[in-house]
Amino acid sequence: MGLRSFFSNMIARDNYDEVMEYLAVKETQHAPRIEFDQAPEQLRELIAVAETPRSPERSKWLSDFAEKTWAVPDGEATVLFSKEHLNAIRFLNQYLREANAKMKQDGYFVCAFDTAQKHRAQIFSKYPKIIAYIIYFFDFLWHRVCPKLSLTRRFYYLCTKKVRKVFPRPEVLGRLYYCGFEVVSEQYIHDRYCVIAQKKRQPSTEPHTYGVLIKLRRIGKDGKYFNVFKFRTMYAYSEYLQTYIYENNDLDVGGKFHDDYRVTEWGRFLRKTWLDELPMFFNLLKGQMKLVGVRPLSQQYYNLYSKELQQLRIETKPGLLPPFYVDMPETLDEIQESEMRYLVAYKKHPFSTDWRYFWKIVGKIILKGERSR
Prior knowledge:
Blueprint: H1 3-11, H2 16-26, H3 41-50, H4 56-70, E1 77-81, H5 92-102, E2 103-113, H6 116-126, H7 129-145, H8 153-159, H9 169-178, E3 181-189, E4 192-199, E5 213-219, E6 225-231, H10 242-248, H11 265-272, H12 280-285, E7 290-292, H13 299-302, H14 307-313, E8 319-321, H15 324-327, H16 332-348, H17 350-367
Helix pairs in contact: 2-6, 6-7, 16-17
């Protein structure tokens, strides 16, 4: 790109309609869609009206529908429609818990919100790119960071007359799962993201933080659960989407989820450089892990393994440096074969096996630059 074309690009604006057409495909690429012929008539009617062109009559109908569904006694709503878009709700988890309490088991909760990607598209369609980047940076700090930090939260709401939170799509989906729902359909209706979720359980009671350090529940020796410490590489609440992602995304090369949109751009850098795993040395010091060994798995991944390998895994501590880097397997079956070889060898000769694997792993990482995919 020449200097002139680079300058022209920096003073150009994005086409908002084209960006929204792209997002309507990209953000729903792995999203489920409900079979409406099996849905309640009330839900079919709601979506049919929502998909009509915007008008005062449409807005009034939707507002009246929301008021009517929220007026039913707790535990009796079959279909519940959010009174307003989620970005305008200050205490979102509290609101979702109230929605959960209103609903029957397997009832449908319908909500809509503006995604962070749409918010970005709005900024870049209004201003030349060089100015848009500056505005977006400060907008990110104000609407994405300040509401989540205890030091700045009160100041944010004091200065903001009307709540306009900005949510990445994975955070909203994760909050729904955290509050007892399961997502059954996602789509853009006009330029707003619409989610249909079913009540499946009571809301979670475990605390959640936005801190850079996170705890992930993993299976360790003797099948006991322990918390693995890592730097955050995913959007908030993404950990509650493990089953959802597995059901809607294929496994990629190396056993990871294909196109895992929960990972942030900053998170991809941390993962590529392994900086996200530095806090795991605390698990090493606590005696929950050892230096070389199979990676600690979530229950979702653990269930994918054969019964024989599951048993072998819990007979020893998981490790920081996995045998993955010795064999670089590409499929789930190859990963299991690689771990089986290591665990069988470790069971016979623990020290010599870890010593041999340690130097092979270090050689692959340092000399050949191997990385997990």
